[in-house]
Amino acid sequence: MFYELTTMHEKLGKEVTKSMVHIYTAKQYDTLPFTPFIHMLTNIFEEGKRCGDIRTKRSSETLSLIALQLYFGALKLWMFSHLSEPLSTFMIDTIAMFIDYMKKEGD
């Protein structure tokens, strides 16, 4: 079971990272295609649900909050693409939430 949980959290971490890289890359080119991003968000929710099914309801809720943070960060970038602050703020907030989640869950 420990191995299964570790694997799921690795997948989740990869999905969060891919989403952040996607948004950062889109920002560099002043475009934000939402189709791949929505697919990534779906993957994050699915990984979160799998983790929550095995662990606790709190885990699942925390992962949903991380996904929402990514989504709102993307909207900020789209609406305020001329500013660099939303990018750095949302990336820092998302990383902090993910690290906090991992610490609380003991991984």
Oligomer: single chain
Q: What is the molecular shape?
A: globular
* Unreliable residue runs: none
The largest pleated sheet is described as:
none
Structural class: mainly alpha
Q: What Rg is obtained from the alpha carbons, in whole angstroms?
A: 14 Å
Strand runs, count: 0
What's the average pLDDT? 60
Number of helices: 4
Question: Considering DSSP H and I runs of 4 or more, what fraction of the residues is helical?
Answer: over 70%
Q: How far is the first residue's CA from the last residue's CA?
A: 13 Å
Question: Could you walk me through the main structural features you see in this protein, from its secondary elements to its overall organization?
Answer:
Helices cover about 85% and strands about 0% of the residues. The radius of gyration is 14 Å and the shape is globular. Helix 1 packs antiparallel against helix 4 (about 85-105) and helix 2 (about 35-55) packs antiparallel against helix 3. The model has no long low-confidence stretch (mean pLDDT about 60). The relative contact order is 0.15. It contains four helices and no strands. The longest helix has 27 residues, at about 1-30. It has helices spanning about 1-30, 35-55, 55-80, 85-105. It has a domain at about 35-105. The chain has about 110 residues and is mainly alpha-helical. This is Transcriptional regulator TetR C-terminal Firmicutes type domain-containing protein. It comes from Anoxybacillus gonensis.
